């Protein structure tokens, strides 16, 4: 049982890191990024390829962050002159192109089979220390991400980003360079997400194109919106909630005596229902952003 | 060459009606409805259900169109109108939730195994050197007729004039006595019907499967964005462009590029071709190809 809880907490932590990345982009800066999973995917693939080449985990994570930062830069530059809806769809298309490349460039990514095993120093530890080590890593990642996001949110950059979200024209009038602000938010979020993606690859010891579907992006959006757009602690809480639902579904299925199709439907349906209910009755999220506390 | 044209038209027929409805709703409600492609999924399965209960194809498609239209009106009034008060971003995220729910519903009720329509096997007709099945020809003709009827409705009827007025200035149209709520409901109904029809036609070829909506998501959005979101006939042209790209990508012999007699581009990248066109179009014309809106500086 404790092994199962550790697994759940580790996975929740990894997803919390990804949703923190989206929280910086969508919550704090108001960027409708629907290609978020591409950052996690690049992180995961970089980790896997680095592991195959025999690099240590830290180097793999760093390579993933660098790759994701480049993609974030490209997305922000692309967004210079697009309306928000159009930009959202462009990011969706970019993420899909990344997924197609991962599926088709078999020499680098292992094609549809993905890369397995993804080895790290942590995976070799004896007994329970293997999973406990990953739990510590993911908890440390979340703590670091949360601290970073809060620190940025409380500082000058965070105020500028929130101003861009609420009143972009006013921000431009006050002399803020909106493209530069967008770029910073995108790159920052991309790095956090790539770190989460790399941890996921090391933890599951596998990476494949299935990690990169648009449905995964929507899942991370659900986490952020559930917790409250703009609230970093909310993003972490949302990740925990969604992972808890996913973990509860197999028990529910066994209680109903249903098959795997129903389990898939339950997973999707429960998360969708929760998101819809949250939007209709508590649009500010479970842990709403507290404006005005920042000085 | 004729085969190329036929293949392109076939793919256009798949995409155009769904993209048309998406663009239409965007024009009135000002948010991209991600759940719209799932109406095609629901429509495909509803048409299958009617046929499984003993109806024929025409009855199945008709009933499924009506049911999906009603579903779209219901969702529009109960969910999207409420969320739109908080802003278009909330409505878009809400449409994500609705889309998850619709997939879950279909998955739970029908299972993940694909269902093919019980259609009689017909010999393909020969048009010169090209081959096409009679039902496919009927699908192309039906889509073309629907697009024509839609254009007639939009530009010649009172309802069409009201829709265009609301799309260009909602507050003014409302102040002039147009019933905005009724027109929005009518738009939702029409868009649901069109999506269901498109989904059923797609399922005629590929069978109804759970990923039908997800597979449509990007090509349909690409088509609608290419035409300029909110410009329904532009969306049809966008669908044509996407279909032509996809067909060219798979069927044009590019062996000369690397000095071989026969060579084709890697078929796995077929989706990437249309997205690349989309990105290119967005960089060059940020509001779609047929944007005529005047923006204040």
Defining key terms:
heterodimer, A: 295 residues, mainly alpha, 12 helices, 75% helix, globular, B: 297 residues, two-stranded antiparallel sheet
How many individual domains of chain B?
Answer: 1
The whole-angstrom Rg of chain B is 20 Å
Order of helices and strands of chain A: HHHHHHHHHHHH
Largest interface: A-B, 44 and 46 residues
How would you concisely characterize the structure shown here?
The complex is a heterodimer of chains A (295) and B (297). Chain A is mainly α and 295 residues long.
How would you characterize this protein structure?
The complex is a heterodimer of chains A (295) and B (297). Chain A is mainly α and 295 residues long. Chain A contains twelve helices and no strands. Chain A has one domain (2-212). In chain A, 54% of the residues are buried. By secondary structure, chain B is mostly helical. Chain B contains eleven helices and two strands; from the N terminus they run ααααββααααααα. Chain B has a two-stranded antiparallel sheet. In chain B, a hairpin with a 2-residue loop joins strand 1 and strand 2. In chain B, helix 6 packs across helix 8.
Blueprint (SSEs and pairs):
The complex is a heterodimer of chains A (295) and B (297).
Chain A: H1 2-28, H2 37-52, H3 57-78, H4 84-104, H5 106-109, H6 129-154, H7 156-166, H8 168-173, H9 178-204, H10 214-227, H11 232-256, H12 260-281
Chain B: H1 2-29, H2 36-52, H3 57-84, H4 88-110, E1 125-127, E2 130-132, H5 134-156, H6 158-168, H7 170-175, H8 180-206, H9 212-226, H10 232-251, H11 270-284
Antiparallel strand pairs in B: 1-2
Helix pairs in contact in B: 1-5, 1-8, 1-9, 1-10, 2-3, 2-4, 2-8, 2-9, 3-4, 3-8, 5-6, 6-8, 9-10, 9-11, 10-11
